[in-house]
Amino acid sequence: MNNIRLLADVGNTTVKLGIADKNGILFSFSLPTKALYTADSLGLSLLQMLSFHGIEGISGVSLCSVVPELGKTFYKACQKYLNCTPAVFPEDFNIPLNNLYANPQEVGADRLMGAYAGRMLCPGSKSIICIDYGTATTFDCVTDMDYLGGLICPGLFSAHNALAQGTAKLPHITLRFDRSVPLIGKNTVTSMNHGFVFGFAAMTDGLCEQLEKQLEGPVHIIATGGYAEDLAKLSNKINKVQQDLILEGLRLASYELLA
User: CATH top-level class for 5-92?
Assistant: First the structure.
């Protein structure tokens, strides 16, 4: 049997999947999170993905889920169609971060795994801030191997959708921009596009500046999520963009802790 693993990050908006070996993530793709998946539909999708990439077998599955019912469905799909019982974080394995949250059980598994990945990818920095632009925008702080906690803010697309649903006359927008400074909008689309994009960039820089004052330096700021690369172009604080950060954390944990 080869030493290739399937990694799964089951989130509120997408199910991110990765095929990895000990050296890195070989392939990744995502499915929309939806309630109508069955173990059969997910299992067949997994088989199709593996076949497309020429993978004939895997040695294991690592799963991080913040959607309990879909996580259970994915678990059953792997057992039935891949003949693998997933190792689920944090139930089946731990990571070497000291969780200093007042109630450690309140921290989402995705936040902890992303913080662990950020810590492992930036070993030369005393402290790390991991920003995830997902359904929510989260800021997670780590000093040495201590997970300190962080901030939870609205997500870019969640905020946009809430505004669009709550205002009958405002249009849906693309959240695209082609400038380095926000224009004073002369039309509604530009006003909204630049308000959202530059507003979130300003929020990022302002919050990071305040968090840095509470952390031991040097501080390295790493961003992930669908809009991370675009916002990093506007931010003065983001040092590194690492897409698939949670999958990378699962990979590192799998080959270091489950080997």
Answer: alpha beta
